[in-house]
Specification:
The chain is of the alpha+beta class. The chain has seven helices and 30 strands.
Length: about 550
């Protein structure tokens, strides 16, 4: 019944998931295996929590001799049930051979006891425990223990093992049988219990209290030395893979250096991860990768400013080491653009005269919509129109400004007014018909005639306009008087044919009428006075 219980318990534990080191769990409850190996199977108040045949706080040490097939050279009183070879591996520990069952031979030469371990693979054997009767211990003088046919340990012919003997072979031995014998004549061999210990897979050392640290999880380390054929698990080194990597290193054979952990934390020695994150300027779990160009700070979460020549900022603090690109304030971080109205390196250049007061491009200074009126459209709008031009793109010609003044280059107005004959703000419109002078304020003297648009400027020469007016009046008067005199001469000629020569009187007396007097009154005193009749006679005579 005890064997059947152990069988079903073992079957249950087969289903328990292996740990990361593939150490097998041999606790006697599923709950204990659920937290294995981080928590021991046996507790202080409950030490026996291992399956039968397993020992240690983690139930990691197995007695591979338990209930195995045994033989011995003879049996005391032929009582197999009480003294047969199998009684020495029945799992019942005692030291009272007189009252309890122990494997026991007859008195004979070279009595021998052998257990066949029947393991699937030959085990390395080094640790054996013997329980021998307390009485008559000298019967065990000279005892020898062999693994296979190799000597594990022996006592001299005058020495014997203690009642409970923890034996360590002088070297690990591989074999499938263990033999115990006492050489010599007339000897007895008594064994109350024999336990042969090997470590569970995943454990090693004398007490099987060290976990294997193999690189390959399926690799079973040497149960004596801890050596792993696949190498050590990352984070460990040494011949037994038990030495933790020095601080600052990690990985296979501790060959990798830790990254830039925050606050100089020690990285995980297995995979190199930084428990508290990375220092500013570094990223990913191992903090070995610098921030991408253009980012900086903790977790590379901040964006660089506009550094000169597109060079990335310092990935730790974001400072632009060579200064800022054109269009950005040189405050070491280069995150603030130039104020409106400024551009270029260090924002030292002022914008030109952009159309509609729009600020220029802060990198190049170019006005996006062109230049304001009065400025050349050369991109930056810093050069005024050439003299004689004004307006948008300087495409308009100045008008006729007084004294040849240069017009205002924004709107074309003449600062001192217009030359004579021109008017409005730009002095591009000539005087209307019938007007003249500066600002076209004077009317022309001739009806239905247009004055000359080339009149001189007001106040500069009044003689010329006055003489012109007088000349026009004189011409009109002389022309009218001449026509009138011709008509009178024609009338006189008619009268001469009717009058006789003796009745002739001077023309002065006969023509002295109201009409002729009126005509003479309009003639300038500078015009010579003619006796028309006498003059006529002189010319014809």
């Amino acid at each position: 019944m005890k064997f059947m219980c152990s069988f079903w318990m073992g079957l249950l534990l087969v289903c328990v998931t292996a740990t990361v080191t593939d150490a097998e769990c041999h606790c006697n409850t599923a709950d204990a295996c659920a937290v294995f190996p981080s928590t021991p199977c046996s507790q202080i108040d409950d030490p026996d929590r291992c399956q039968e045949g397993w020992f240690g706080s983690y139930c990691q040490k197995q007695n591979i001799a338990l209930r195995r097939s045994c033989t011995q050279t003879s049996t005391m009183w032929n009582n197999v049930g009480r003294h047969g070879a199998g009684v020495g591996v029945d799992g019942i520990v005692t030291l009272d051979a007189a009252h309890k069952a122990c494997a026991h031979t007859m008195n004979e030469s070279n009595p021998t006891w052998t257990v066949n371990l029947n393991t699937s693979v030959p085990e390395k054997i080094q640790h054996i425990r013997l329980y021998i009767r307390q009485m008559l211990q000298e019967r065990s003088n000279g005892m020898e223990i062999l693994v296979g046919n190799q000597m594990c340990y022996n006592w001299s012919s005058t020495e014997h093992p203690p009642p409970i003997a923890n034996v360590t072979c002088r070297q690990p031995l591989t074999g499938t049988t263990v033999t115990i014998r006492i050489p010599g004549q007339q000897k007895y061999l008594c064994l109350c219990e024999v336990q042969i210990f090997v470590c569970s897979n995943g454990w090693f050392s004398k007490e099987c209290d060290k976990q294997c640290r193999c690189l390959n999880s399926t690799d079973v380390c040497d149960k004596i030395t801890g050596h792993c054929s696949s190498g050590c698990f990352p984070g460990y080194n040494g011949t037994d893979c038990q030495t933790v990597c020095p601080n600052g290193t990690y990985g296979n054979n501790c060959s990798s250096m830790c990254g830039h952990c925050l606050s100089e934390d020690i990285c995980d020695k297995t995979n190199g991860t930084c428990p508290g994150g990375c220092e500013a300027g570094w990223m990913n779990s191992t903090c070995m990768q610098a921030c991408p160009d253009g980012s900086y700070g903790t977790n590379c979460s901040l964006q660089c400013g506009k550094c000169l020549d597109s060079v990335s900022c310092d990935k730790t603090n974001g400072i632009c080491l060579n200064g800022c690109a054109p269009g950005w304030i040189n405050d070491i971080f280069c995150l603030q653009p130039c104020p409106d109205g400024f551009y270029g390196n260090n924002c030292a250049s002022q914008c030109g005269n952009c159309l509609d007061g729009v600020s220029c491009g802060k990198t190049s200074g170019i006005c996006p919509n062109g230049c304001a009126a009065g400025w050349m459209n050369d991109g930056t709008c810093l050069q005024p129109c050439s003299n004689g031009f004004f307006g948008i793109n300087c495409t308009s010609h100045c008008g006729n400004c007084l004294n040849g003044d240069i017009c205002e280059k924004t709107n074309g107005t003449c600062p001192g007014g217009c030359s004579a004959g021109w008017y409005n703000d730009t002095c591009l419109q000539g005087c209307a018909v019938g007007t003249h002078r500066i600002n076209c304020t004077a009317d022309c003297g001739c009806k239905d005639l247009k004055c000359s648009d080339a009149d001189s400027e007001e106040g500069s020469n009044w003689g010329t306009p006055v003489a012109s007016v007088l000349g026009v009046l004189l011409i009109c008067t002389v022309t009218g008087g001449t026509l009138y005199i011709r008509r009178l001469l024609k009338q006189l000629e008619i009268l001469q044919t009717k009058m006789s020569e003796e009745h002739y009187v001077t023309l002065d007396e006969k023509t002295k009428t109201t009409a002729t007097e009126s005509t003479y009154e309009h003639i300038d005193s500078a015009t010579p006075y003619y006796n028309t009749v006498n003059h006529l006679h002189d010319e014809t005579g």
